[in-house]
Write a structure and sequence with these properties.
There is one protein chain. This protein has 438 residues and is an alpha+beta fold. The chain folds into three domains: 152 residues, no CATH class; 108 residues, Helix Hairpins (Orthogonal Bundle); 150 residues, 2-Layer Sandwich (Heat Shock Protein 90), CATH 3.30.565. The protein is built from eleven helices and eleven strands. The chain has a five-stranded mixed β-sheet with strand order 6-8-9-11-10. Strands 1-4-3-2 form a four-stranded antiparallel β-sheet, with helices on both faces. Strands 5-7 form a two-stranded antiparallel ribbon. Helix 8 packs parallel to helix 9 and helix 9 runs antiparallel to helix 11. The longest helix is centred in the N-terminal third of the chain and has 48 residues. The radius of gyration is 49 Å and the shape is rod-shaped.
């Protein structure tokens, strides 16, 4: 497994250096081969031109045709009249035409140029050994090849250096990230980043901002949770101490009821804290399609006893069958929390009306109550955790977590939840919208 990781996690800098260097080497070899071919051909043509020039000098009398001409040892060029002996040695035809010939004599290859002398029937032959010609050509190639190889080595070193320099900003960003404090994350600087890297850095910065926001939210949640738990725990401690000071059985029973009620409220608070934490940090599972109206009917059935106990008329106004996506019973908890919130704030003798209907492409759930409605402050803070519109000194105030949980669930389901005052008659209207499944 470790070996596979090492194989997969290759260095981008090394890969760029290798592939760019390989491309440079390949193109350099191709260029060198073309240069060698061109140089060899030009050297051969130059040697042929030299043979022609010498023959021309003989023809013009600048070189005596009576005395054979022999060039330097490196060129290995010689001049002879084309007599009977020479024709036999080199297998020239008797009526050989002027021009270049490739001949072999004594195990050696020669390049020969035949030229007729002016106003005479004699011909002159200029010889040059093929081996000498090739040696001159290869010397020319080596002279051209050496600078190319030097430049190639320098170019490879320059490529490695340039790529290393260009990767310094990325290494600096890596060091910047490595030194980040998890409790105080900072976004990465993008001013001097490459254009190709900027989208990646922006994505990282968005992730950092979301992470920082999540950390801050968790800090506030923990602080608020600790504050909210401190009060009921202290109250339970006092109730437990008071039980020991009961003066009669009736007094003991009353104090035990108060303790049981306090434990129930604490249990509800802890459960809601766990629910809120779960929905804030849950990884959404695969969605399944459900009928929103059936979910609402199920939750209404569960809460009918609570409505009857408070003398509240809980009923359904519209109940259209609409399909929506649901995850991990999220819609059930959202609907239940919204209904409990409406029942909590609705006084005895009031009513809570529920509707499920289609609004263009959205399935809509509305819950209208006849409670006190919302103040301006409530509308700003009602979705915050631990905020409750009911005064804290009330014996029956809520925990301020129900709508916060609803907000988190709506995000998970990609829906939207709002709470506002009713246009007429007082009270509030809860509205939840989610894309309908066709």
């Amino acid at each position: 497994m470790d070996g596979q990781k090492i194989e997969k996690n290759k260095s981008l800098q090394s890969q760029l250096s290798v592939w760019v260097s390989l491309a440079v080497v390949v193109f350099s070899l191709i260029t060198t081969a073309m240069t060698a071919y061109t140089s060899f051909k030009e050297a051969s043509e130059q040697q042929d031109h030299t043979l022609e020039t010498i023959a021309d000098l003989v023809t013009k009398g600048n070189i005596s045709k009576e005395t054979p001409y022999v060039s330097t040892k490196e060129e290995a060029i010689s001049v002879s009249l084309l007599n009977e002996d020479l024709r036999l040695r080199f297998h020239f035809q008797k009526n050989v035409q002027d021009g270049f010939y490739q001949i072999v004599e004594g195990g050696k290859s020669w390049r020969a140029y035949v030229r007729s002398l002016t106003n005479e029937s004699d011909k002159v032959v200029v010889f040059q050994q093929i081996e000498a010609r090739d040696e001159i050509a290869w010397n020319s190639i080596r002279s051209a090849f050496l600078p190319i190889m030097v430049l190639l080595v320098l170019l490879l070193l320059a490529i490695r250096l340039i790529i290393g320099v260009q990767f310094r900003p990325l290494r600096a960003l890596s060091d910047f990230l490595q030194q980040q404090n998890i409790n105080e994350l900072k976004i990465l600087p993008t001013e001097y980043a490459f254009l190709e890297v900027k989208p990646f850095l922006k994505s990282i910065n968005n992730f950092i901002e979301r992470t920082q926001s999540s950390i801050e939210r968790q800090k506030r949640f923990i602080a608020d949770a600790a504050h909210e738990l401190r009060t009921p725990v202290a109250a339970l401690s006092l109730l437990a101490e008071n039980i020991q000071q009961a003066k009669s059985n009736e007094d003991l029973s009353e104090r035990q009821k108060q303790l049981a009620s306090g434990l129930t409220r604490l249990r509800n608070l802890v459960n809601q804290l766990l629910d809120l934490a779960r929905w804030q940090n849950t990884v959404p599972s695969e969605a399944r399609v459900v009928f929103l109206n059936e979910v609402v009917q199920e939750m209404i059935a569960d809460l009918i006893p609570l409505a009857e106990a408070k003398g509240i008329n809980l009923g359904v106004v519209r109940n259209e069958p609409l399909k929506v996506k649901n995850k991990d019973l999220a819609l059930q908890q959202l609907t239940r929390n919204a209904l409990e919130n409406a029942l909590f704030y609705t006084p005895a003798g009031g009513s809570v009306d529920v509707s499920v209907f289609l609004d263009r492409t959205h399935a809509v759930l509305t819950i209208e109550d006849t409670g006190p409605g919302l103040t301006d402050q409530d509308e700003e803070k009602i979705w915050q955790a631990f905020y409750s519109a009911t005064p804290r000194e009330s014996d029956h105030h809520g925990n301020g977590l129900g709508l916060a949980i609803v907000s988190e669930i709506a995000k998970q389901l990609q829906g939207s939840a709002t709470l506002m005052n009713r246009p007429q008659g007082g009270g509030a209207v809860f509205r939840y919208e989610q894309d309908v499944v066709v």
